[in-house]
Description:
Elements: E1 7-12, E2 15-20, E3 28-34, E4 36-37, E5 49-50, H1 57-71, E6 80-87, H2 95-108, E7 111-121, H3 128-136, E8 141-147, H4 151-156, H5 163-175, E9 181-187, H6 194-206, E10 211-216, H7 224-227, H8 235-251, E11 255-258, E12 261-263, H9 270-276, E13 280-284, E14 289-293, E15 299-304, H10 308-311, E16 319-324, H11 330-338, E17 345-346, H12 349-354, H13 362-370, E18 380-381, H14 385-389, H15 391-396
Parallel strand pairs: 3-6, 3-13, 4-5, 6-7, 7-8, 8-9, 9-10
Antiparallel strand pairs: 1-2, 10-12, 11-12, 14-15, 15-16, 17-18
Helix pairs in contact: 1-2, 6-8
Amino acid sequence: MTIDSSAQPLILGGAQTPRAALSQLPPLALYIHIPWCVRKCPYCDFNSHAASPVLPEEEYVDALLADLDQDLPAVYGRELSSIFFGGGTPSLFSAQALGRLLKGVEQRIPFAHDIEITLEANPGTFEQEKFTAYRALGINRLSIGIQSFQEEKLKALGRIHNGDEAVRAAGMARQAGFDNFNLDLMHGLPDQSLDDALSDLRQAIAMKPTHLSWYQLTLEPNTVFWNQPPTLPEDDTLWDIQEAGQALLAEHGYAQYEVSAYAQPGRAARHNLNYWSFGDFIGIGAGAHGKLSHPDGRIVRTWKTRLPKDYLNPAKNFKAGEKDLSNEELPFEFLMNALRLTEGVEARLYPERTGLPLESLAEGRRDAEQSGLLQVEPSRLAATPRGQLFLNDLLQKFLS
């Protein structure tokens, strides 16, 4: 969608500050949150809730489409480049419910001809017939939550599947017609050794996924693990796991393109790349977040009602809040995403996506380059290997 590129002043925070109108809006994605799980994992800080025996599928799909209707005026004339079903465990929903939802979405917003549609799934919810039906709906990518193949590690993480089910899940995905799937794998697990971690990684690689999300377990507030912390590996072991694991992934053709994302050539997650390059996304569902750019230069973040019972209550609003990003916030907001990418982004993307001149980063950029955290490369914004390790320190350079 191309629009008028003339610059205009905006009134933000009570003061007049110049921000150019956006000459072209970024790609648009849709995130759909399904908040139910079979059981809440002790490390999970996502908006997920233990499911009752019967899920309110019909009511929730109705609510999702009504929620989307309220966001439509901000995206008229645009098309969706990707859709991501996250959770929770979206694969708890039937193919019939997801099919009605996808049909309703496409009736409201056109799909790009090569749209990527990802569904998160856990091995404990895999059924061959169900996943074949998902593929027939046009869902063309799976993200399978393995976490580990080792029984004692899975038990410690509160997972409902075992290692054999994890292996079978990948085979069932292929048999259902999915030639593009991600495996989620964690390291730094309770009492995990280097050999344990590499064994998990080798088994995942042997399943030949097109993409691997390999990330370290962290203890997050408001989780069981935060209140009752398990014994995690020492820092030296964590460092050894990280180095050896990255070498193993590279050896097998998985290129690291983000802090914890590795992909075969051409198989990077397009939906997540859109997030990290400061693209736009609608968020629908309980607790979903969104970010939308407007032709006049405004960039607005939104968040939806968090509890499923409130989200399904007709007397309550879907939208819990929204915030216009100020000029002072934009450098940090843009870079906290872009600098997660190992190759960063082209520098021209900053003015294109924010409406602010590249010079607005000049002071922080000089400081970060002198500290060895940002590459000295005029045409790109990219962290150095050291900057990737100390990303929080790097981002602090750009706080107003």
